Automatic annotation (TrEMBL):
InterPro entries: DUF6427 (IPR045625). This is Beta-carotene 15,15'-monooxygenase. The chain crosses the membrane at residues 12-29, 62-80, 92-123, 143-168, 180-199, 228-247, 259-276, 282-300, 307-325. Pfam families: DUF6427 (PF19992). Keywords: Membrane, Transmembrane, Transmembrane helix.
Length: 326
């Protein structure tokens, strides 16, 4: 199966569509009686009313989520291939994006984090263009606005602001205009939001939007380890990918090296951003899927022992399905 997706054959897009729904067999087999979907943060719903969410039936919710994941996987695949992050273009990024988006039951339904992945993929694309741009001011401004739009949907997305400055450190020499432009783009969106709150005599509510940023990072975690055993094969593949990446690191293009470093920091930002939402749900970690899927795809793109990497992928798929059912 891996060899099939290593190629750029258009028929793979059809296989991916079928694979997307195959990875959701467990939730279709036992449909929840009701699914809630809060598309926007409360401070956004204050001035934007979108009549979707709780009116959707469970089947519609799950099918829409699957279609969104499939569309995101195709877009993600285009971005990774356009920036030549793998040894050759193919459909492996899309394959592992869909696989990563199917690891846990909360990943299979509509969620604000899932919607934000459209924006995260867009941010990834723009950040990887920094090194090729003569002037990154407008690029950073656009990224700031995209992150602001994501924050309107899901507040933890605000932590991606850090990626603006980390990416500039990786790709460019210091220019204060470039460092400020991303923040200006972000503030531009929230300036309009603040004006709206002011017109409605609700500036106190606008101030409370930012209080989660002062949350203390939790020092203790309650983890049911049996719920996360599916991550064992994922972790194994990631370790193998990092070993492979280290071996090829200095033989890769400079832009490729910097892109992987940037994606590593993006993965970390996605993980730690959960602290900004005290009642966060497991679907939050969908934000880790785009940068994580690149690393998984990198290993399978460079692996040479077919019996081993095909078996490893089969173990990953079977483990995912097993833990979804049980």
């Amino acid at each position: 199966m891996i060899n099939q997706f290593r190629t750029s054959n258009p028929i793979n897009a059809v296989y991916l569509f079928a694979y997307t729904f195959f990875m959701r067999i467990a939730i279709f087999a036992e449909l929840p009686s009701k699914l809630n979907f809060e598309f926007l943060e409360p401070y956004t719903r204050f001035f934007i009313q979108i009549p979707i969410g709780n009116d959707l039936s469970p089947t519609t919710n799950i099918v829409l989520a699957a279609l969104i994941v499939y569309l995101q996987a195709i877009l993600f695949n285009l971005v990774i291939n356009n920036h030549n992050l793998l040894s050759k273009p193919g459909y492996l990024p899309a394959l592992f994006y869909i696989t990563g988006s199917s690891l846990f039951m909360p990943f299979l339904i509509l969620s604000p984090a899932l919607v934000c992945n459209f924006l995260l993929i867009w941010v990834m694309d723009k950040l990887m263009k920094i090194g090729k741009s003569q002037n990154a001011i407008m690029l950073m401004f656009d990224v700031g606005m995209i992150i602001a739009a994501g924050t309107l949907i899901y507040f933890p997305f605000i932590v991606m602001l850090v990626m603006i400055w980390l990416s500039l450190l990786l790709y460019r020499s210091f220019s204060w205009r470039e460092w400020v432009s991303g923040l200006v783009g972000f503030v531009t969106i929230f300036l309009f939001l603040g004006v709206f709150y002011y017109w409605n005599d609700s500036l106190g509510s606008f101030y409370r939007i930012w209080l989660p940023l002062a949350n203390k990072f939790p020092s203790a975690f309650k983890i049911h380890y049996n719920d996360y055993l599916v991550l064992v094969p994922v972790a194994l593949i990631m370790v193998l990918a990092m070993i492979q990446l280290r071996e090829n690191f200095f033989r890769s293009f400079i832009s490729t090296r910097k892109a992987f470093q940037m994606l590593f920091f993006m993965f970390l930002c996605a993980v730690v951003s959960f602290y900004t939402k005290p009642n966060f749900r497991l679907y939050h970690f969908l934000l880790c899927v785009p940068p994580g899927a690149v690393l998984l795809a990198y290993y399978f793109s460079n692996a040479t022992k077919r019996w081993f990497y095909e078996s490893l992928f089969l173990i990953l798929v079977v483990a995912t399905q097993y833990f979804l059912f049980v």
